[in-house]
TrEMBL record:
UniProt keywords, alphabetically: Chemotaxis, Hydrolase
Cross-referenced InterPro entries: CheD-like_sf, Chemorcpt_Glu_NH3ase_CheD, Cytotoxic_necrot_fac-like_cat
Cited Gene3D superfamilies: 3.30.1330.200
Any one biological process term the GO annotation gives: chemotaxis
Lineage: Bacteria, Pseudomonadati, Pseudomonadota, Betaproteobacteria, Burkholderiales
Hydrolase is among the record's keywords: yes
Protein name: Uncharacterized protein
Recorded GO MF terms: protein-glutamine glutaminase activity
């Protein structure tokens, strides 16, 4: 195998939790605000409502990343620290940029995928709920566009729960739909 096509030797870095998978294969489950970056024979999965999962895959390097973000940016009044917080898209984007640079992965090496952003809360025309899926989708699409990354797969919006699974061995992304989210009456 040439150095150009050799799999990346990047170890998995994650804030997620270990999850036993099918047929004894292990995986990582990401809670809201968690992220994972690396390679290997694991599956990274998460459940999405209004939050979004921004997924990056570098086919040549066989390297993947998933961030489960809840809001585009830190709301006013939230303590700003030097520690990045994956709940916020701005922080997750910075974290991804740093990990990609550390791994020697260029933007031209990447494919981007996006899932989630369901509308949760009040029905259309009523006072907005606390979760804004549309704002999360817009943030992720703008972040990808700013880095020249076309979104090769999107499953966003609506009022449906999603379970996302990324296979770090081959970059295969699966999104399964669950139940519908309820409409909250004002």
């Amino acid at each position: 195998m040439s150095a150009q096509t050799a799999p990346c030797r990047q170890a998995l870095e994650t804030t997620g939790v270990a999850e036993p998978g099918h047929l004894g294969a292990d995986g990582i489950f990401l809670r809201p605000g968690d992220w994972a970056f690396g390679s290997g024979g694991l599956r990274v999965s998460t459940l999405l409502g209004s939050g979004v999962a921004l997924v990056l895959w570098a086919p040549r390097l066989r390297l993947g990343a998933v961030c489960h973000c809840l809001q585009p940016e830190r709301p006013g009044g939230v303590l700003q620290t030097t520690r990045l917080d994956g709940r916020y898209g701005g922080d997750a984007g910075l974290w991804l940029e740093r990990r990609l640079a550390d791994a020697g992965c260029g933007w031209q090496d990447l494919q981007a995928m996006l899932a989630g952003g369901a509308q949760v809360g009040a029905p259309a025309g009523a006072r907005a709920g606390t979760a804004d899926g549309a704002a999360n989708i817009a943030w992720a699409q703008q972040w990808a566009a700013r880095h020249g990354l076309p979104l090769v797969q999107q499953d966003v919006g609506g009022r449906v729960l999603r379970r996302l699974s990324l296979n770090l061995a081959d970059g295969q992304l699966t999104v399964a739909h669950g139940g519908h989210l309820p409409v909250v009456q004002p």
